[in-house]
Amino acid sequence: MAVPPRDRPHFHVEGGGQSEAYTSPRLVISGLPPARARAAHAARLEQAIGTALAAGRQRLADREDGVAEGQPGFYLEFDIPIAERAAVEALENKPKAIELVAVRPTAEGDEMVSATVFVPEAAADFFVKKIEAYRDEETRTGKPKNEALIARIDDIRVAVARSLFTDEAQHFPADGRQVWWEVWLRDGGLAIFQSVAAKLDVAIKDHVISFPERDVALALADEATMDRLIRNSDVVAELRLAKDTPSLFLEMRTVDQAAWANDLADRIAPPSPLAPAVCILDSGATQAHPLLAPGLDPADQHSYDGDWGVGDSAFWNGHGTSMAGVALYGDLEAALSHGEPVALGHRLETVKILPPTGQNEPRLYGAITATGIARAEDHAPRRRRVFCMAVTSDVGLGRGRPSSWSSSIDQLCYGGGDRRRLMVLAAGNLRGDINPADYPDRNDLEEVESPGQAWNPLVVGASTDKIMITHPDYDGWTPVAPAGDLSPASRTSAIWDRQWPIRPDVVFEGGNFAHDGANPASAIDDLQLLTTHYRPAMRLFEAFGDTSGAAALGANLAAGIIAARPTLWPETVRALIVHSAEWTPAMRQRFDAAGSQSQKLAMLRRYGWGVPDLGRALMSASNDATLMVEDALLPFRKDGSAIKTRDMNLHRLPWPRAELAALGDLDVELRITLSYFVEPNPGERGWTRRHRYASHNLRFAVKRSLEGLEAFRQRINKAAQDEEAGAVGAVAGGDSWVLGTIRDRGSIHSDIWRGSAAALAERDAIGVFPVSGWWKEKPGLQRWDRSARYALCVSIRAPETDIDLYTAVANQIAVPIPAA
Which residue numbers delimit the Peptidase S8/S53 domain (predicted)? Predict the structure, then answer.
């Protein structure tokens, strides 16, 4: 980039009566004698450094209380002539902890190279002293001190986000535009960066690439927000745009795609024989694909109809193979790019439930799904698995009313006895053109497709973080969805009647659409997931997305949980996925503005409980401790000819009272998720009290700070009676819960309580209790004496403190939490 003209002295070299390249530090300015030239140069740099230090100290003063972390300091940017660029190394001083962090690339015609250093507050006067010594002192040989550096500095200024940007200058994001940044972090700065980003509500990706002196993370922000992050920390070394997109791989020649695929295949460690499986119910899969073969044994491929074969079909555009690639690897782009070994923790199974050509009769899908599941289970009856299905239908939708297909799914998940099944379903996609002006209203008006009305499976919608468009064919195009918001084709349950479940439960990445401002939007390759193509002899990779891709990602995460915790119930795996979900900043921006319960319910029916995370599902950080309970109760009892509610389980919580009391008024969060499966009774008879769909319903309640256990039991008993009388969610109202009464839909309930740590210390019990269902209302069916099992996840979170809550909780429990 050419340097714009400005008022500055022109340097040239004394000697020979001519000017030549900048090769000697003995400078004169416009013919001035060397001493005066040195003084003039020093004076100009003193003025520049004075202005820069004043701005730097103002940035220090502007650091935000409760946000800023790390060593106080600021960044200075130096201009040095290109011919003297080797001098940038001398800007660094390790004893003073002054670090050279970024050197911006130059373009043809540039006169200067810009280098940025981090300067700790304690070393703020370092360059002032260097300049003063250059002005006033000489070495033994008669040269100015520090001449090798100071004589080569043209300008100094305080650095901002733009100063750390090392991509081509013309790609720097326009004012106000959110982009994904590659944030290159100084050695050891990752934890500080993550903490400050969380406080500033900056979305960051979990995946981090580490090098000997740098960690690279991805953050979503505009320029102003990124500048705040830099100002409040000391860890950012360099900024670039996150540029990797699927089009990089999709536009390769087949021979190049094969080279990349083979490189990944050589790095794969196949799954163990005892590994769990993702069983994909779809159009089959191409087992011979080099990236599917390590995780898909030919013996694990099945078909509903033996005449269909087990391979994938052009009629379905290789949909099953695309599902398989995402279910096995997640977004394949990451595995291709990082170069590290890939250990497969789960395997694949496929069941072809779609004919090679044509369509199944939608009303037969319940039986087809059941037969497909039986095929896989008969072949490997003891294998742990999660079933994944993205096949949906818009036939017979009724604002959340169960269909025969969704009811059969519920029956398959419930299973009877201990044979429970975990299923992941896609919420379904909008059909026809996607018009940007209709987003997201159209998504709220077109309901989740069948069998997504089911209560027991995990129903997955699509969100997106993909907003980077780099392909030159789409220059000037704009993404439809903002990063962190709903994917443009994803359906919701916003128009469902209030008694039906929240759908989707959660959302995963489903890609984005882009538009040129005149035509309907398109799902361009830059904004999609990368997966496996069903004809590897022609091409190895395929773009993929929408709720199919999101459901495959959901199954991938569920299998990851099962692989890590193989004894968990299906209800518990579903609970952990929902419990680990969080609303993105973009979702929270809409959600937090939704003050009324009806507005909150509308947001919940659009996004579910947000975006899950495997790390949160499996691990408890020191200030984020999670407890799990797997238990059962007998919900009903017979009293003469009447059936009445029976048991309530009271779980005492091993809170670290001393640690919480020490936090006092500090804000903490308590999150609770309750998950159970219901036995369906789907006959359409008006869905009155006597003709309920669910066999039973469970609820949770938390003991209040000043409430004794007996008073707590009485409150639960009254709440159960009130709900029997029609007061939905009576126990959940008020009391600082985020969702409150709207959380009790379907068979999974999750909510967050916020308050002081001292108040949480006294909230040391959770009650799980039944409310009515058809087991109670239909005694003639002889189900009232059945046990109802459930999973309960409880976590406390204190993000603003370093107190180790996890260890404090772990020290108090050596066995699972008993029910009282």
Answer: 277-610
